[in-house]
Amino acid sequence: MYKVNSIADDRSKFKDEFKYIEKFNNYNELPEPFEESNIKNFWRKIFSFSPKYIDFRQVYINTKDPCSRIYNTWIFFFFDVAYAVVDMGNDEIKVFKIGCKHEYTEESHERFIHTYTCKKCGLTFSVDSSD
Q1: d(Cα 108, Cα 116) in Å, to the nearest integer?
Q2: Average confidence (pLDDT) over 43-64
Q3: Is 115 in contact with 126 (CB distance < 8 Å)?
Q4: Residue 97 and residue 5: Cα distance in Å, rounded?
Q5: 14: closest CA among 44, 52, 43?
Q6: Is the pLDDT at 68 greater than 90, yes or no?
Q7: Higher confidence at residue 12 or residue 61?
Q8: In 3D, which of 78, 75, 83 has the Cα closest to residue 54?
């Protein structure tokens, strides 16, 4: 069972953890940068990795429209990307991918441990390839 945390309350403590996000924004906005994605990409991620945090927000999707509605949105924060799943009503779901478009370089490898760093946002992670 996941504990649902609102990371908008104390964004400062998450800034170092989620380097791939430039702006966390408020409860009525998606974090930036974001782009529309599809549900398949979200399912591929969630079947492979567990989210570190889940956030609930009520966001405006089309901010250029003064009559735009607020939509219920769940944001799943993974180690390298976040996905916003938005209930648009009438059985329509939209998915937005949130975060840097990573460009990784391999920094080092010792035995079977490979360490990668994104040139854009500085996100670093290691992979054990010994399996």
Answers
A1: 7
A2: 87
A3: yes
A4: 19
A5: 52
A6: no
A7: 61
A8: 75
CB 63 within 8 A of CB 70: no
Q: How far apart are the first and last CA of the chain?
A: 29
pLDDT tens, position by position, 14-23: 777 888 988 8
Block residue for tokens 């964004």: 11
SS3 111: coil
Cα gap 120→30, rounded to integer Å? 20
pLDDT of residue 10: 60
Entry pTM: 0.83
| Interior angle at CA 94, CA 91 and CA 95, nearest 5 | 140
> Which residues does 128 contact at the CB level (< 8 Å), separation at least 6?
112, 113
Q: What amino acid is encoded at 82 in this protein?
A: A
Write the single-letter amino acid at 71: Y
- List the structure tokens of 37: 């994605």
> Shortest CA distance to 34 belongs to which of 95, 93, 78?
95
pLDDT band at 1 (very low <50, low <70, confident <90, very high): very low
